[in-house]
Design goal:
mainly alpha; Single alpha-helices involved in coiled-coils or other helix-helix interfaces; 3 helices
Length: 62
């Protein structure tokens, strides 16, 4: 995680819906930790799902 304080407190991954936790766990396995933007998006499940869908769609097109 980030060192020091941030203006927005970190999200508690254990309290998230299953689909969000699965995505963050996949990132942890691939990269050693969840990606920071996704931790921010996880504060709102709809934003998280929209961001994930956007990146999934972009990866399909390339």
């Amino acid at each position: 995680m980030l060192e020091g304080k941030t203006r927005i407190p970190p999200v508690d991954v254990e309290t998230l819906p299953d689909d969000l936790r699965e995505t963050l766990e996949e990132q942890r396995k691939l990269r050693g930790a969840p990606l920071y933007p996704y931790l921010f998006y996880a504060r709102n499940a709809a934003y998280f799902r929209a961001a994930k869908a956007m990146w999934d769609a972009l990866q399909q097109e390339t």
